[in-house]
Specification:
The chain is mainly α and 516 residues long. It has a single domain, classed as Amino acid/polyamine transporter I (Up-down Bundle), CATH 1.20.1740. The chain is built from 18 helices and 2 strands. A two-stranded antiparallel ribbon has the order 1-2.
C-alpha cells in the first residue's frame, strides 16, 4: 500500500524534457553573449562549443546516476549514497545555495527584460523598488503553481519552453542569413585566457541540466525516461546556443551600436544583447520579438527553478540531515510545500538584498560546480555497488568519472578570483549549518572534501593574473602559477583528490571486477 505522503509519478518524457530545456535556457542565452564577447571576441563561439561538450559529459553522468538511483534531490541525494552524510550534506548545501540564489537571478532578469516595455521596473540591470516588488510577486506566483502540483508546474514549463524557442529560432535564422564574416577577424583578440574566461561565464547559461534528475521520484519509468530526456535536452540546448552565438556575432553592426569598429571590450555594456544588435541592424520588430522571448524564457525558467530548489531541503530532511518539517508533503497535492515555501523565502531575501542580475548570477554559478564534481566522483563508486547489466550505462566509469571531476575543477578555477573565494566560503558554511541542524559527524574519510575546496581556492589565489573578474577585494591573484602551468596544476590536483576520495569511499572501480 502506498504511503499517503508518497510523491506522485506524474512526469513523462516530454514533461521532463521541458523541465530540462526550460531550466537551462533562461537568462543566460539572452544576457551572456555580450559579456563573453567582451572577454574573448568572436572566439567565444569556441567557448560555447567546449562548454556544451563538457556539459553533455556531466549530463550523461547524471543520466546514468539518475536512472540507477531515482531519488528526489539528485545533485544532493546521489553523492550522499556514494560519499556519505558529511559530503552529501555539504554538497547538498552548495547546490541549494546555487538553486535559490540562481532563482533570484532568473526572476530578477525576467523583470529587467519587462523593463523594455515598462521602464520604471529597472535601471540598467538593477531593479527599482517597483521592480523588486514585481519580482517578489512573481516568485510567490511560481511557488503557488508548484505547491498546487508538479503536473501544473511541468505543463507551465512546456508552454514557456515553446514560447522561448520560437523567437530564438527566428533570431538565429535571420542572424545567419545576414551574417557578416568580417566580424570573425581577428578571431581570438584576447588569446586562450579569454576563451577560458568566456567558458566560465557561459557555464551559467548551461547550468540546469541536472534538473532532469531532481524530481526523479516523480518520473514515470525513470530508468528509461531520465537518460532519454537528458540526451534530448542537451541536444536541443547545444544546437540553440551555437546557432544563437553565431547569429549574434554575424549581426553585430558596430556603428549602429555606437561602438568603435570591433571594440569587443565595450560590447559587455549592452544590457539586452540580442535585442540591441537586432535594433542596431535595423530590425526593430526582431528586437521586440527577442525581448518578448526573453520575458517568456525567464518566466519559464523561474517557474522551473522554484520547483527544483524546494526538492533539495526536502530530500535532506527525508534523510534526517535537515529540519524535519522540510520533509512534509501536502495532504492534498502531494508536493513538498514546506520546503518550497522555505526556499522561496530565502530567494525573496536575495531579491531584496541584491537586486542586480550580474552580481546574483556570479554568486550562484560558482556554488554549483562542486556538486557536479561530486556526481562525477560518484559514478564509478556507485557502479561498483550495483550488479546491473541493463539500462543506460557509460563506458569506462573510472575514466569518465575522472574526466568530469577534472573539468568541473578547471571550470571552478576559471570562474576567477574573488568568486572562487566567495564560493569556497559559502560552501564551507554548510559544515556549520550541518552542525546546527544535522545528525552526522565529520570522519577521517571526509577530509578530502574540505581539502579539495580550500585547494581550489589556494590555486586560484596563486594562479594566473588574467583569471580575475570584478575584484571587490584588495587582494588579487599572485600570478605564481601562470598559464599553462595552472592547468597542469589543476590536472595533478584533481587526480590526487580523485584517487584519495575514491579510496576513502570504497576503492577504485575496475571494469574487470565482474560487477559490470
Amino acid at each position: 500500500m502506498k504511503s499517503e505522503t508518497e510523491l506522485k509519478k506524474e512526469i513523462g518524457l516530454w514533461g521532463l524534457v521541458s523541465l530540462g530545456v526550460g531550466g537551462i535556457i533562461g537568462s543566460g542565452i539572452f544576457s551572456m553573449p555580450a559579456v563573453m564577447g567582451s572577454v574573448a571576441g568572436p572566439s567565444y563561439i569556441v567557448a560555447v562549443v567546449l562548454v556544451g561538450v563538457i556539459s553533455l559529459l556531466l549530463a550523461l553522468i547524471y543520466a546514468e546516476l539518475g536512472a540507477s538511483y531515482p531519488l528526489t534531490g539528485g545533485p544532493y541525494s546521489i553523492p550522499r549514497v556514494a560519499l556519505g552524510d558529511f559530503a552529501g550534506f555539504t554538497i547538498g548545501w552548495g547546490y541549494f545555495l546555487y538553486a535559490f540564489i540562481g532563482t533570484a537571478a532568473i526572476i530578477d532578469i525576467f523583470v529587467t527584460y519587462a523593463g523594455f516595455y515598462f521602464p520604471s521596473l529597472s535601471k540598467g540591470l538593477t531593479l527599482t523598488p517597483l521592480g523588486i516588488t514585481v519580482s517578489v510577486a512573481m516568485l510567490w506566483l511560481f511557488t503557488l503553481v508548484n505547491v498546487i502540483g508538479v503536473k501544473w508546474g511541468t505543463n507551465f514549463g512546456i508552454i514557456t519552453t515553446v514560447g522561448k524557442i520560437i523567437p530564438l529560432a527566428i533570431f538565429g535564422v535571420i542572424g545567419l542569413f545576414m551574417f557578416n564574416p568580417d566580424n570573425l577577424t581577428p578571431f581570438a583578440p584576447f588569446g586562450f585566457s579569454g576563451i577560458g574566461l568566456a567558458m566560465a561565464f557561459d557555464f551559467w547559461a548551461f547550468t540546469g541540466f541536472e534538473g532532469v534528475v531532481i524530481p526523479s521520484e516523480e518520473v514515470k519509468e525513470p530508468e528509461k525516461n531520465i537518460p532519454r530526456a537528458m540526451v534530448i535536452t542537451m541536444s536541443i540546448v547545444i544546437a540553440v546556443y551555437v546557432i544563437i552565438s553565431l547569429a549574434f556575432i554575424g549581426l553585430l553592426n558596430w556603428s549602429g551600436l555606437g561602438l568603435g569598429w570591433k571594440d569587443w571590450g565595450s560590447i559587455g555594456n549592452l544590457s539586452s544583447p540580442l535585442a540591441d544588435v537586432s535594433r542596431a541592424a535595423g530590425l526593430g520588430l526582431l528586437a521586440s520579438g527577442v525581448t518578448l522571448g526573453a520575458i517568456i524564457s525567464t518566466a519559464g525558467a523561474g517557474g522551473d527553478w522554484v520547483l527544483f530548489q524546494g526538492r533539495i531541503p526536502y530530500a535532506m530532511a527525508k534523510d534526517g540531515l535537515f529540519m524535519k518539517v522540510m520533509g512534509k508533503t501536502h495532504s492534498r497535492f502531494k508536493t513538498p510545500y514546506v520546503a518550497l515555501i522555505f526556499a522561496s523565502l530565502l530567494t525573496m531575501f536575495i531579491q531584496i538584498l541584491i537586486p542586480n542580475f550580474p552580481s546574483v548570477a556570479l554568486l550562484a554559478s560558482i556554488t554549483t560546480l562542486i556538486p557536479y564534481a561530486a556526481a562525477s566522483l560518484s559514478l564509478p563508486l556507485l557502479r561498483s555497488k550495483i550488479n546491473k547489466t541493463k539500462g543506460f550505462r557509460l563506458p569506462s566509469p573510472s575514466f569518465i568519472g575522472f574526466l568530469g571531476f577534472f573539468l568541473s575543477t578547471l571550470l571552478i578555477y576559471w570562474a576567477s578570483w574573488p568568486w572562487t573565494l566567495v564560493g569556497a566560503v559559502l560552501t564551507l558554511i554548510g559544515v556549520a549549518v550541518m552542525g546546527f541542524f544535522g545528525r552526522v559527524s565529520f570522519r577521517r574519510k571526509d577530509i578530502w572534501l574540505p581539502v579539495y575546496i580550500i585547494g581550489i581556492l589556494l590555486i586560484s589565489l596563486l594562479g594566473d593574473k588574467n583569471f580575475v573578474f570584478q575584484n571587490f577585494l584588495q587582494i588579487s591573484p599572485i600570478g605564481l602559477i601562470s598559464m599553462p602551468y595552472d592547468i597542469l596544476t589543476i590536472t595533478i590536483f584533481s587526480a590526487v583528490v580523485y584517487v584519495w576520495a575514491m579510496r576513502a569511499n570504497g576503492g577504485i572501480y575496475y571494469e574487470d571486477k565482474g560487477s559490470s
